[in-house]
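Thread: sanity check for a docking pose with magnesium ion

Original post by kr_44:
Hi all, I'm comparing my docking run against an independent structure prediction. Below are the sequence and the ligand SMILES. Could someone generate the full complex and paste the structure tokens? I mainly care about where the ligand ends up relative to the chain.
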Amino acid sequence: MANLDGYSNDMIWRHLPLRNLTVALFVWLGLTVLFAGVSMRIEYQRASEELAATGQTIHRLISQRAAQHDAHLTSLVALIKAAPELPETAIGEVFQSIVQFYPRITAIDLVRLPVDGVSTAATLISWPGPLKTDLSPIASAIAGQKQGEVRTYLNTAYPGRYLLGKRATAGNPGLAIVVQIDPVLLIEGDERPAWAHVRVSLDGETVLDREANGPSVTDSILTQPHFSKIVDSQSQPFMVDATRPLALSDILSGTRIGGFALACLAVLLLLLFTWQLKANARKLQQTAEEAERRAHLHEHETRLAHALRVNALGELASGIAHELTQPLTALLSQSQAALRLAASEHPDPALLPEALSANVREAKRAGAMLKRMRDYISKREQKLVLADLNQIVVDIAELVRADLEKRQITLILDLATPSPQAVVDPIEMEQVLHNLVRNAADALEHGDMPDRSIRIETILLESGAIIQVSDTGPGIEADTLPRLFEPFYTTKTDGMGLGLALCASLVERIGGHIDGRNQTSGGAIFTVTLPAVEQHLKAAQ
Ligand SMILES: Nc1ncnc2c1ncn2[C@@H]1O[C@H](COP(=O)(O)OP(=O)(O)O)[C@@H](O)[C@H]1O
Ligand SMILES: [Mg+2]
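Reply from moderator J.T.:
Ran it for you. Here is the predicted complex with magnesium ion included:
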């Protein structure tokens, strides 16, 4: 796979924070559960709607069939208006054809009702003939029916069927037609889907109960979609109840949810991966910006350091000029002596080279001094080298010696052996020490102390090296102490307040630090701590 700014995909996965992975996992679980919930809800809804439609159809069919029964009774009653004059066989044939056409009508009887309530009912004509039903248990009830009324009879005497009775019209009140119906055939085979449980009842008594093939109602953990409606019929006001037993597996599709979970996981991982790529790119950019910012700062510091060195030139120059007087005076007197020697009648040939060698030595001394000064104020980039700290102290002492002598200040060097070493820019380090020495010298100007001295000490530690600059001045004022390294903070009328601030940044940028405090014996002491060489090398890796 492709790399992005040095990060391989493998690394991205490895560096993916555990927190993000956990969040993604929870989001994934949450979405999957939500999806399962929603799809279950939709499936349940669909099953309920299907059941409602089926319930409506069954209800409509039963209503139509009930109306048909009423119509049969009405036409049969009309037929027997003329009875008993009508030939029995003709009536029997009508009965037969109805029963043949409508299998749910299992029998039709023409009954003579008991007139006085005492005599029993007598079946006059019946189809199918040989199996005559004893209608006595319901005969008196039929006799009590209103004119034109059709009534349903559910009676234990007639198991597996219900009876419909209607009295003949006023012309022949003693007769009645009774139709027997098999309720199982109220709904034909394919009219009820296998999953539907249908129950038809009258006043709470079951007329028909057809179980669904599938989970039984009691096994299911779900509430069952349910439909219930009363048949629109005066004679057969059945209650139609339809239920759809649902098992969890009916509405919860494992493959669908599994598919969703997989797709969701893929999308989430993709998002996470993209997010991580972006985060890495952002981090790299931030690092680059930080490096650039530091480089800028570095450059500024270098420029400021140079400016301040040039600024200190005046002070140094007077000292150096004074210092140069010595070799120049020596040069002059040696050269004059040599000239005199050359002009004499018997010049001693051994003396001339001696005088010239002395001149060379003095000229070199003057040259070295000027070179040091030029180096010190030269404009240059930072150059880190493994340097001898004692040597740096000696060099700066050379530069400031004349100035200090002029101000009657003793400079004491207390150098550790062996000399501590550190990775520094020697010129910058000289500048740090120069600033500390100048501050000490400034402090010694004030006050009237008998001992006016500055001490520079190098100390070798296991953890690094220390250079301390202490003085016998009045010490740092209490107000100044917390603000020593603050840029532009000065207590001097002609001060810039940049010396110590610059010292701090020069020392800190090579991994060291600086602090200033008062000594118990009086006077200030500034400590520059530099990291050990190995530490520096480690940090640079
Ligand atoms: N050796 C010292 N003794 C007493 N006070 C000091 C000493 N070194 C520095 N200070 C105080 O710290 C202040 C800040 O010093 P610095 O940053 O070098 O700025 P400047 O020398 O321009 O004032 C000085 O003004 C002075 O009050
Ligand atoms: Mg200063």
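Confidence is low (pLDDT under 50) at residues 1-7. Hope that helps with the comparison, let us know if your pose agrees.
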